[in-house]
Amino acid sequence: MSKSLISVSVLLVGYASAQSGMNVGNRQQYDRSMLEHSASNMQKARSIAYFNNIDCRYQINAPAGHYIGISFDTFLIEGKNDFVSVYDGPEIDESKLIAKFDTAEADLQSQSTGNQMTLWFHTDRANTGKGWFANWVAKKVLPPINQFGTSGVVISPNYPKRYDSFINQLYNVRVNPRSRVRATMEDFEVEENFDNLLIYEGMVQEPRFLVANLSGARGVKWDHTFAGDSFSMKFASDRAVQQKGWRMSWAQV
C-alpha cells in the first residue's frame, strides 16, 4: 500500500505520485515540472489564503493494479463558487467526474476505479479561504471472491476483526443450474451510511438488479431467496470508521 498527501493554499498546480511519495507543486498551469514543498512550508502555507481566479490541476498516479482513495481533512473555501472536482483517470473529463466538493458539509471522500486520479481546483474573483488539505492512499485491487456449490459462507475482509479503509471487494456466488439460492446475514456491523454492502440478483452489478443496500446494524436479520441460481455483492468502505464487518451464509434451495 502506498500513501501520500497533497495540500493547496498558495499552490497553483500540483502533481503527485504514489511511487515517489513527494508533495509537489508548480505555478505554471498544467505544467508537470515539480517543486518540492517540505512539511514545514506546507504548514505555513495553510495559514495564507489562496488566490482568486485560478484553475489548478492535480494528478495522482499510483502503481499499476491499484486504485486511489482520497479524503479532505481540511476544507476551507468559499462555498458554491469555489470548488474541487475529482475525476477518474488522468484527464479533466466530465464523463469521468467522481465528485464535486464546494462545502465542508459534504462527505469529502472519494475513490477512483483505476490507478490515476485528477483534481481540479477552481476559484472565482470574489472571496477566498485558507484552502484545503487532502490525504490519499493507493490500495491494491482485490481479486473477486468466487464461490460455487450447494452452501457456503462469505465474510468481509479481516472478519471478525475490523476491515480496512477504502475497501472495494467483489463477491460472486453460484449454485447448481435451475436451482435457487438463499442468503442469510448472520452478523452485520459497518459504519452506517458510509460503508455499504450492495447485493445484486445475478452476476451483473447494475442498479436494476440491486436487491439490497445494507449499512449500519440494520442488516443483521436480512434474509433473501433469489430468483435464480446466483447473486453478487460489492462491499465498499470509506476512510473514517472501520467496524468488524459482516458474515453471511448461503445455501441452494
Automatic annotation (TrEMBL):
* Domain CUB span(s) in chain numbering: 50-139, 137-253
Q: Which InterPro entries match?
A: CUB_dom, Sperma_CUB_dom_sf
* Cited SUPFAM superfamilies: Spermadhesin, CUB domain (SSF49854)
Gene3D superfamilies hit by this protein: Spermadhesin, CUB domain
Signal peptide: which range, if any? 1-18
Residue ranges spanning the membrane: these are none
Q: What is this protein called?
A: CUB domain-containing protein
User: Can you name the source organism?
Assistant: Diploscapter pachys
